[in-house]
């Protein structure tokens, strides 16, 4: 896993072979961040990385200048790996929450400029996540939500949907909340 651009550009982190999480591919990550350049300026933004997995997106967000990134990951080993990666780069502006994303969202009392959600593709609740994020009010007006999902999911009829991007087997639905 590598950081694509920014202050940590080129940094590589070896993911343990025992991990269940699959990081967003470098190809897909680079392309979706290129698209996002037209939606948001990450410099100084507050971001939320749901189902953080390996921490690949959190690292990318910090590298691109986010003021703070909150990474939510339930798996103990994955959370430990994210913590180790943050220590290696000396990041002080990543808040790691080891816990359930659904409980976190329902109890969260703050808003973010950018939210990235990459749930396991087989998660039964996957289709409900974009609506839950908007219902919980965690995205700031003018904010952007990127939702990574498999090819069998369709979100274009949901409120706030803007566009769909596909890179190989990786699909992204982009949502915005108007100001």
From TrEMBL:
Keywords: Methyltransferase, Transferase. NCBIfam families: 16S rRNA (guanine(966)-N(2))-methyltransferase RsmD. Gene3D superfamilies: Vaccinia Virus protein VP39. One of its GO terms (molecular function) is methyltransferase activity. GO terms for biological process: rRNA methylation. PANTHER family: METHYLTRANSFERASE. It comes from Prevotella lacticifex. This is Methyltransferase. PROSITE patterns: N6_MTASE.
């Amino acid at each position: 896993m590598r950081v694509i651009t920014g202050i940590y550009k080129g940094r590589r982190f070896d993911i343990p072979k025992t991990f269940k999480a699959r990081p967003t591919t470098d190809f897909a990550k680079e392309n979706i961040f290129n698209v996002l350049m037209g939606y948001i300026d990450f410099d100084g933004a507050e971001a939320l990385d749901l189902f953080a997995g390996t921490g690949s997106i959190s690292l990318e967000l910090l590298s691109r200048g986010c003021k703070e990134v909150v990474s939510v990951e339930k798996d103990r080993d994955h959370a430990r790996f994210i913590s180790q990666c943050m220590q290696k780069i000396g990041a002080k502006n990543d808040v790691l929450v080891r816990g359930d994303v659904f409980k976190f969202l329902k109890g969260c009392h703050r808003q973010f400029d950018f939210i990235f959600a990459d749930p396991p593709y087989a998660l039964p609740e996957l289709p409900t996540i974009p609506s839950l994020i908007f219902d919980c009010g965690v995205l700031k007006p003018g904010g952007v939500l990127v939702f990574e999902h498999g090819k069998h999911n369709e979100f274009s009829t949901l409120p706030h949907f803007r566009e769909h991007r596909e890179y190989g087997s990786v699909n992204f639905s982009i949502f915005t909340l108007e100001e």
